[in-house]
Amino acid sequence: MSSLAARQPMLTEGPIARTLLTFALPILGSTVLQSLNGSVNAMWIGHYLGEAALTAVSNANLILFLLLGAVFGLSMACTILIGQSLGARNMLEAKRVVGTGVTFFVSVSVLVAIGGYFATPWMLAALNTPVDAQAFAVPYLRIIFVAVPSMYFYNFLMMTLRGAGDSRTPFLFMGLSVLLDIVFNPLLIFGVGPFPKLGIAGSATSTLIAQTVALFALLATLYVRKHFLRLTRAELGFLKPNLEILRALVFKGLPMGLQMIVISTSAMIMIHMVNSYGSKTTAAYGAATQLWTYVQMPAMAIGAAVSSMAAQNVGARLWDRVSRITRVGVLYNFVLSGALIAVIYVFNHGALNLFLPNDAEALTLAQHLNGIAVWSFMFFGVTFVLFGVVRSTGAVLPPLVILFISMWLIRPPFALALAPSLGADSIWWSFPLGSLASMLMAMGYYKWGGWRRAHMLSKPIETPEDKAAAAGQQAPTTGQGVPASAD
């Protein structure tokens, strides 16, 4: 048995509140690092390469977000499958998931990279990217597509580790990736020292270098430490895709990926409505959404942590712990999100002034809309925690339907219907209404829905304990909550 396996705590053991917080904080840290990286890259490009270059990156990032949104769902399905397998003490099933996942993500990423590279001009034209920005966007996006295999495989490994109960290692290597990206950005944009001057292509190249180096460093670390989920030479047969697992990755992963697309397309609809009220209102909304990005981070981190933790406990059939994980997750959401929201209310003017330094009218508008909408993100947080729990069993369609109803069928129609009487306030009030509706629907499904009977695989996992019980003997374990491995 590996030394890492011996140190790795299972999420089915120990005090729930402390375990969940310890697991969620590195996920939150990873999200903050990613946002920081994006902001630093945008600063270099916007300040030194001009508005056309920044517009190019914004359009390219829309395409990248859709690609990463889809792979997020597939990675999340892998996380849940691994969590359930380990919770059931079924190491063989966990390794099958890893092997199938490796083959699937490598294959898909190569196809996406090749197709995206050649289709880049067409995609940018479909987005109606300004002509002056296309000259920057084409080389930038093509290099990003070259980086897609590293991005996809790196993301898959990080989600695999989280499914195994380890969020600290992904955080450390996310830190390495962000540090490399930030360092190489100016060096490759401006051609400092021995580095070539690549302009906007340098920003994309720094991302390619950072992701690739971090990926190989993570792989090397897992093998040096003899991580219990690594595939040894004798286990390379697991790389042959298991059709049952492959079906689960696709049919359970795609609905989770579509949730991200529902959120992003809803945001596009809302910004279209906001634009109709003029540039001052759009600037105010843009400043507020900068703050909202950070307000949502704790809820999303807790939702991801709850999903991994609940998956292991579902696999172990510890339903009482699953219920307590839900309650603790909701409580943490109120504490962490509530604290951030309180800070924003206290420092509303100062926080928004960071993004609107010289525009008193837009600043006043931003304070007004923030006062109406920002508190509702606590509802959003409850929804994400409940979604994290129910999807841990394989119930992935109801959360997608709930999001679609609240973000497409409630929020935009409400804003349009009340626009003649409330003006732009109809948009701001649609946010609390949509968040409240999604929370109530999520609570209803959690309490009365059939999510506990859902499953990731069409055939239930036969655990070592089941086999041992049938044979009248105990299944061997390490005593650390991790099955003994022959590696």
UniProtKB/TrEMBL annotation:
<feature type="region of interest" description="Disordered">
    <location>
        <begin position="463"/>
        <end position="487"/>
    </location>
</feature>
<dbReference type="InterPro" id="IPR002528">
    <property type="entry name" value="MATE_fam"/>
</dbReference>
<keyword id="KW-0812">Transmembrane</keyword>
<dbReference type="GO" id="GO:0042910">
    <property type="term" value="F:xenobiotic transmembrane transporter activity"/>
</dbReference>
<keyword id="KW-1133">Transmembrane helix</keyword>
<feature type="transmembrane region" description="Helical">
    <location>
        <begin position="396"/>
        <end position="414"/>
    </location>
</feature>
<dbReference type="InterPro" id="IPR052031">
    <property type="entry name" value="Membrane_Transporter-Flippase"/>
</dbReference>
<feature type="transmembrane region" description="Helical">
    <location>
        <begin position="291"/>
        <end position="310"/>
    </location>
</feature>
<dbReference type="GO" id="GO:0015297">
    <property type="term" value="F:antiporter activity"/>
</dbReference>
<feature type="transmembrane region" description="Helical">
    <location>
        <begin position="98"/>
        <end position="119"/>
    </location>
</feature>
<dbReference type="Pfam" id="PF01554">
    <property type="entry name" value="MatE"/>
</dbReference>
<feature type="transmembrane region" description="Helical">
    <location>
        <begin position="171"/>
        <end position="192"/>
    </location>
</feature>
<feature type="transmembrane region" description="Helical">
    <location>
        <begin position="426"/>
        <end position="446"/>
    </location>
</feature>
<feature type="transmembrane region" description="Helical">
    <location>
        <begin position="330"/>
        <end position="348"/>
    </location>
</feature>
<keyword id="KW-0813">Transport</keyword>
<dbReference type="InterPro" id="IPR048279">
    <property type="entry name" value="MdtK-like"/>
</dbReference>
<feature type="transmembrane region" description="Helical">
    <location>
        <begin position="62"/>
        <end position="86"/>
    </location>
</feature>
<feature type="compositionally biased region" description="Low complexity">
    <location>
        <begin position="469"/>
        <end position="481"/>
    </location>
</feature>
<feature type="transmembrane region" description="Helical">
    <location>
        <begin position="139"/>
        <end position="159"/>
    </location>
</feature>
<dbReference type="GO" id="GO:0005886">
    <property type="term" value="C:plasma membrane"/>
</dbReference>
<feature type="transmembrane region" description="Helical">
    <location>
        <begin position="198"/>
        <end position="224"/>
    </location>
</feature>
<feature type="transmembrane region" description="Helical">
    <location>
        <begin position="368"/>
        <end position="389"/>
    </location>
</feature>
<keyword id="KW-1003">Cell membrane</keyword>
<feature type="transmembrane region" description="Helical">
    <location>
        <begin position="245"/>
        <end position="271"/>
    </location>
</feature>
<protein>
    <submittedName>
        <fullName>MATE family efflux transporter</fullName>
    </submittedName>
</protein>
<keyword id="KW-0472">Membrane</keyword>
